[in-house]
Amino acid sequence: MTSSNAPSNPAQILADDLCTQLEQQRHRACLVLCGSADWHQAWLKRLIRPDWQGVFIGETSPHPQATPQNPKQLRHLLGQETDFAVFDANAGLEADALGIVGGLIRAGGLCLICLPPKADFLNHPNPALAAFLNYPLTPEDSLKGFQAHLWHQLHRHALWLEENQIDQAWPDLQNLPSVPSTPPLNSDDTQPTADQAEALHAIQHVAFGHRKRPLLLTADRGRGKSTTLGQACVALLQAGKRRLTLSAARLPQVQKAFDTIENALPQLAHSGFVLREKRPGLVIFDIDQDVAEIRFRAPDDLIRAPADTELLLVDEAAHLPLPMLFALLKSHSRMVLASTEQGYEGSGRGFRLKLTEHLDAHYPGWKRHTLTTPIRWADKDPLENTLNQLFLLDTDPTDDVKASAVHSVQFERIDHPAELAQPDNRADLQRLFQLLTQAHYQTRPNDLMQLLEIPNQQLWVARAQGQIVAVLFAVGEGGLPNEPGRRFQGHLFPQLLKRHTHHPDWLSLKGWRIQRLAVWPSVQRLGLGRQLTAHFIEANQAEADTLSVSFSADAGLIRFWTSLDFQPLHLGLKRDQASGQHSAALCYPLTEKAARLTQQAQQQFQSEFAWNLTQPFQHLESDLALAIFRGQPPALPSHFPNGYLQDQPFESVAFALRQWTLGQLTQLEDSDTLVLWFRKVVQHQAWSDVVAASAFPHRKALEAHFKNWLAQQLAPI
Q1: What does the pLDDT read at residue 441?
Q2: Are 380 and 373 in contact (CB under 8 A)?
Q3: Is-cis flag, bond preceding 214, omega within 30?
Q4: CA 279/CA 222 separation, integer angstroms
Q5: 704 CB burial (10 A radius; 0-12, 13-18, 19+)
Q6: Secondary structure of 242-286 in HEC code, one letter for each residue
Q7: What is the 3-state secondary structure (H, E, C) of 654-682?
């Protein structure tokens, strides 16, 4: 490839050699330019080919061929490709942005990271941190741990070029992986590779085999997962299927699948398919006096009105809330779930664990297939390796801790989290991040950045046989002034409680909010999380007013935290977009003032929650509502209307029955009947809905069952 610079320029020759080798080997690379701003620009001009187009991560771009791109908007580029990307440390380095860019750069391209000299970089605050720090902290207050981690890992795993050291430090191109020069594997995406052919065979089994045996198709990025879904649609039409549905969080996430279908139109035409209509998210054919269609539908639309489809294929499933996936699985008997294993949404391992637990429990015949062969670039890609090392995705976690090891567990606080960035501590850092990714299925690279940078944090771990087996991560909040109308960055819990109780004293209380509590899978349910939390509580008795926790609520988590005397004080009215669940906030007061405020907030929440169950929470999961009620002091006792057990109509005593039930919830044993009774009496659900959820044919039979059950409950009271 030619350059406008004179070929006798040694630096230009080296730049051309690098780009030529990457292009020939169908690899990408991460190249660090370490030096002054003017020196950066000179090298960008040498490295960026005249016919390239790329992105600069920041508000303004110093290079005419690099379009400026806000890091927060990078997600919208997923599914597209670019020749290069430029990061400048002076504009900020955000971990998520690095992870996303790793999936955008095409074979032969470069990820260019411009850093100042080492001393300047390690001591200079990262502007990208501003969005992650609680008021009044600024990037100047950060721990600089992620920057140290970046420096060490990039020096070890990226190509590196340093100002004034070109002759000695120019990357040795012989160290780049060498593979035979071949055309791109995806030059014709209508013809599957051997890896994709196996996946297509598995998808055929879902479409034509037994019902309720879903397929989980997983892959790292660049393995042709979305292309495979498009190939499957084409093959299934040719095999006789006529109604296929593609779904994802957003239509652009399945665009590659639709592109593959479009590329196969000549192949389909040869098989007798006549294109009737083609527009974004829809392709319709006429075939043998019949109609065949491939249609995109959004997941929430599919839940409201399940598709009349012969196969539902969901791409980027890890972007969807698990409850939404569970609902889709329940309403569609033939389904393929495809998801990226690593990258911009985290490792995907937490998602995999939680989803496979559900599949094991409800769909024993489900299958899994993993695409392993890279298609968009060659195997052993240097850029992929650099990012995997940087974000601790280079090894799969192993269950190497036995349950017997918990008898000799040590609990400790890590006082200097930034030191985890040192190479000697990599094993601990990797273990911690693996724990966090398994505890939350959408853990991102930014979570690693915050772990190493946030100064107002507490990090507690449990060790067994030297290995970290549990972690508790908390962030400091509160101590705020009361300035009506002002919203302080961060400080989720005190501002939430101030808003909903209208009591400004919540702002002034100092506390710690637990963001993550995770236990290694092989030693879960052995009390480690409970013990670690107890150590955390004990250590903060004299240092804080409150301890709090906020999470996507489910009944099991509510029961866990209330068993540790955390009090439910809030449940969000709307479901969170990421988790698909309502967010809960609970508090553990440590001081007299905090206890008084907690009691007041609890009484208010209990009354409002009971009332909201009749409307905004009418269809809230009953086991969750019961768990919340049982985590609070019982309501004031109310007399049971005995006439209901004879012939008094339900509608005449509905309010009295509701009040009695609320007062007795801590005494009533869990049962299917209690759940049905709760849905009718407390949540005011329609009789038809409650009957439909029961084993009884009509209201009369169900109400008779209720009366028999009530008589048994009243006997010992």
Answers
A1: 55
A2: no
A3: no
A4: 26
A5: exposed
A6: CEEEEECCCHHHHHHHHHHHHHCHHHHHHCCCEEEEEECCEEEEE
A7: HHHHHHHHHHHCCCCCCCHHHHHHHHHHC
Specify the amino acid at residue 103: G
How far apart are the C-alpha atoms of 471 and 675, rounded to whole Å? 35
CA 406 to chain centre: 29
Q: What is the pLDDT of residue 407?
A: 76
| Mode of pairing for the β-strands spanning 159-162 and 29-34 | parallel
CA–CA distance, 84 with 91 (Å, rounded to integer): 17
Contacts for 313 with CB less than 8 Å, ≥ 6 apart = 203, 229, 232, 233, 244, 245, 246, 247, 257, 335, 336, 338
Q: How far is CA 318 from CA 93, 550, 586, in A?
A: 25, 22, 27
Placement of tokens 């890279």 in the chain: 374
- The pair of structure tokens assigned to 345 is 């949404």
The radius of gyration computed from the CA coordinates of the chain, to the nearest angstrom, equals 29
- Residue 181 is predicted with a pLDDT of 45
DSSP string, 195-233: HHHHHHHHHHHHHHS-SS--EEEEE-TTS-HHHHHHHHH
Q: What is the amino acid identity at position 231? A: Q
Identity of the residue numbered 544: A
Determine contact, residues 341/219, Cβ cutoff 8 Å.
Answer: yes
Instruction: Please identify which residue in the block is written with the tokens 């009509």.
Output: 698
Query: Measuring CA to CA, how many Å separate 457 from each of 222, 421, 431, 442?
Result: 36, 16, 19, 21
CA dist 252 to 120, 244, 339, 498, Å?
A: 40, 18, 15, 40
Residue in this structure with the two tokens 């012969």, named with its chain if needed: 310
Closest listed residue to residue 227, CA positions, set 185, 259, 202: 259
Series of mean pLDDT values for 10-residue runs along the chain (717 residues): 53 88 93 94 93 93 91 78 94 91 92 94 92 95 94 93 68 58 52 91 96 93 91 96 94 92 95 95 94 95 92 90 89 94 53 83 94 90 92 67 76 94 91 79 82 95 91 96 93 96 96 93 89 97 95 90 96 77 94 96 92 90 91 80 90 92 88 94 94 95 95 81
Provide the 10 A C-beta neighbour count for residue 416. Answer: 9
Nearest CA among 432, 239, 218, 426 for reference residue 316 = 218
Q: Look at residues 473, 561, 467 and name the one whose alpha carbon lies nearest to residue 523.
A: 467
687, 699 contact by CB (below 8 A): yes
DSSP H helices in 294-399: 299-304, 322-331, 349-362, 382-390
Position 435 scores a pLDDT of 85
Nearest C-alpha neighbor of 396 from the set 218, 228, 227, 225: 218
Q: Select from 405, 414, 520, 424 the least CA-distant residue to 461.
A: 414
| Alpha carbons 528 and 688: distance in angstroms, whole number | 44
Query: Are the beta carbons of 14 and 170 closer than 8 angstroms?
Result: yes
CA gap 155, 118 in Å, rounded: 11
Find out whether 261 and 223 touch, Cβ atoms under 8 Å: no
pTM: 0.84
pLDDT at 169 (0 to 100) = 47
Provide the pLDDT for residue 347.
45
Q: Measured between alpha carbons, how far is residue 69 from residues 54, 58, 444 in Å?
A: 10, 5, 20
| pLDDT tens sequence across 590-616 | 999 999 999 999 999 998 999 999 989
553 C-beta neighbours (distance < 10 Å), count: 28
Q: Answer yes or no: are the C-beta atoms of 191 and 67 closer than 8 Å.
A: no
Q: What tokens appear for 315 in the block?
A: 């791409």
